[in-house]
Predict the structure.
Amino acid sequence: GAVVSQHPSWVICKSGTSVKIECRSLDFQATTMFWYRQFPKQSLMLMATSNEGSKATYEQGVEKDKFLINHASLTLSTLTVTSAHPEDSSFYICSARWSGRVGHTDTQYFGPGTRLTVL
Amino acid sequence: AQTVTQSQPEMSVQEAETVTLSCTYDTSENNYYLFWYKQPPSRQMILVIRQEAYKQQNATENRFSVNFQKAAKSFSLKISDSQLGDTAMYFCAFMKRGGDDKIIFGKGTRLHILP
C-alpha cells in the first residue's frame, strides 16, 4: 500500500505555455498533499501544502499565481506551472499524507517526481 | 525554527561494510518525528526509517538502524552489510508532531557503495 503516482514523469514545453502535473494517491485517501521542488544535487524545497477542498498554503517566496495548486479530491492534487519559463525547469515531487493509517498517521509517501524542462 | 544538518556531503564504502550517516537537528519542540529518506538515481523518495521522539528505543528496519540521542539532538543512520543497491542520496528529515505536517529536510549525504 501507500503508492503515490505522478503524471507525467517528464515534460518538455515551450516558454510561455502552461503545464499541469498530477499527483495521485492510488490506494489511500490523502487529505493533505505537498509539492516540492528539487534542483540538481540539492535537497527538496517545499513549495506548498495542498488541502482537499480548500486553498493551498504556499511557502514564502513561492508565487501562488505562478504555481496553481488544486486538490479537488482525496486522491488527486494538481500543480499547474503557468506561463512557464526556463528558470522553472526543475524536478517536481509531490507527497501525500495517509491520514487514516494506524501507526503511520504522520508518514508522507512520495511520488516518483516529474522532470520539467522549459525551452 | 527547526533545522536539520547533515555534515557529510558524500561518503563511499565498500560493499558489505557498515556505514554511519550523521544528522543533527535543532528544535524547541518536544514531540516530533525524525526520518531517513533514500533517493536512488531514479529519484523516487523512499522512506528508510522513522523514529518517534517520545520513544527511547532506537528504530530498526532490517539492515538499517538509527542511533537517536534526543538530548544531543542527534539522529544517525547505520547501514549494516551495505549493498550496491544502497547507493543513493540519503536525507535526514524532521517533522513536528501534531503540527502542519511540514517536513524539513537536511541537505543530504550522497552514499556510494563500491563493489
About this structure: The first strand of chain A starts at residue 4 and ends at 7.
